[in-house]
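Case study B.
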Amino acid sequence: MTSSRIPFKITILLCLLTSLTQIHAAEWDIIHAGKLLAVPGEAVTAKQSVILKDGKVYGIKSGYIDAVDLSLDSSDSLEIHNLKNHFVMPGFIDGHVHLTLALAPGAALSWVQMSDADTAMLGAKHARDTLMAGFTSVRDMGAFTDDAIFAVRDGINAGYIIGPRTFVAGNPIAINGGHGDFTHSFKEPVADVLRTSGVCDGVAECRKAVRDQIRRKADHIKLTATAGVMSDSNAGLEQQFFEDELSAIMNTAKLMGRRVAAHAHGAEGINAALKAGANTIEHGTFLNDESIRLFVENNAYLSPTLSAFKTGEALLNDSNSFLTDNQRVKAERAMTAAKTFVKKAHDAGVNIALSTDAGVGLHGDNAKEFELLVNYGGLSPMEAIIAGTLSGAENIGKLDELGSLENGKWGDIVAVNGNPLDDIIILQNVKFVMKEGVVYKHLAD
Ligand SMILES: [Zn+2]
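Model:
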């Protein structure tokens, strides 16, 4: 027996101790917040310390605490973030983006020119722009490629690229020739390149289309219950799926634990989608009294996407814009209703989740939606902030993890200069962005 050999039992013990030490080494962060809105809807407090452990909220204490106030192990690390001159709040949530899309002249042609890999790179850029605007979580509402949007989500989660926590629908579920079928502008055989697994007709195909998205690891299901403004089609803005198809989509998704978001403009389509069990209505432009009754009864969310309407208005006002005649006719109809429908819903007590449809508008301009919710929707600044935080979290089905700075939730934190409750535009100039305890943006005052 050699004296240098460590007995087997001691080796096991040492390994165990090493691994235990690794397990217990914690990363702590303390954010010194001059003003803090920890839970939107509750009071703003002054001179607070938000304590994070391993990226999650561990506690909030009055005053500016430091290392000696925490019982740290010697292997733990601690970083203190000075936001004493800032207004600190939970990271924003956008319930409707298209990270791999960018509306522009010739955009439809780019869909067949770009590889999925090219599209993923574009998505990575949009993801970074979105995070830097203070949006720490987003829900992607449909992509035209098979793989790119999943690669973007998974790349963010793996730390390969920088972006918000992203929940993905995959391809939108759409009828053949409907909104969400990306083949409109193309003849065969080019059209075939853009025909996605989300396009379906009839109950059996629609069940399969939903299952295809879930097989590819979609987090939720997006369907297009009515026509849309931006598809180059002259089919109006009314209902596109039949009731049996809508039920097939909803039931298949729910059997497999997925929430369902239904794009809908025309009232009959909104109401049919809500009756079939949609959790959210995207746009909701021509909602009527029956829609409001169904929203409230089902506790469903409205994703108003006022930013997209604003983009549409600008394109309409520009006679040289790339809108086709089909798009122009529909945009004119939708823009008129866009000025009033959110207020009508909000006044009647419908849940509203901040949503932009970024991809139609610019990625990174997402915070303009707060201002639009106030100006067109009649929400107070605090209500708009709730729509972009707590309601966004509930809309995604992640209220236990996101939307406020409460113990156990993710340390997703943004900070601005000034008080957004006095001037909502301040949210368009975010100075500090942290996601899961990691700082991605920290500008000097
Ligand atoms: Zn959209």
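Residues 96, 98, 141, 357 surround zinc ion (CB under 6 Å). The remaining cases will be described in the next quarterly update.
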